[in-house]
Amino acid sequence: MDTTEYIASYREPYEKALSELEYLIDRLEQIDVERDAVITRISEVREGIAAFAPLVKENPAETHPELFPDESDVGADLGLTDAIRKVLANSNPKKLTPVGVRTGLAAIGFQTKSKNILPSIHTVLKRLEKNNEISSKTEEDGRTWYKWDGPSRALPSLPLPIRRVATQEQIEAAERKRAEARAIMDKAKKKS
Fold first, then answer.
1. Domain ranges of the chain
2. CATH of region 13-191
């Protein structure tokens, strides 16, 4: 058997392996999209819990640390600016008003001696906006909403960027190709 025949015999399994790799990358991207949706929902639910917490006179980070692993026992150790960064980053992509930031601070256990911390929150928010860490939008009703623009601090994302999500037809085609590639590779192993 000549070298070109050997090369040709590997072409089909090579192409099948490329198809499988494409399928796997597409599937990983699809999982990344699903993961982002779950992370957003977790953030929304935590925000809701933080809103209810004062009504039931609880700090969820203390009473349920397993549900708030990044927030238990850290509030007291953070300065106000870092605590506000944490609240905004963990609420991303949602926007918060200064009152929402105050609620988030309470939820992570941030301790303050001041009875009215809102002026300090406003000052920090303006400074963070000036440093391009956050952006703001003032609504017609006069309320200003702030959104985190810095790096994500909530949960790490998967290493691959999102290109596109595979359709069900593409997934099924890739699975067929993968099965064919396995059959060819098994057949080649039996010959050797």
1. 13-191
2. 1.10.10.10
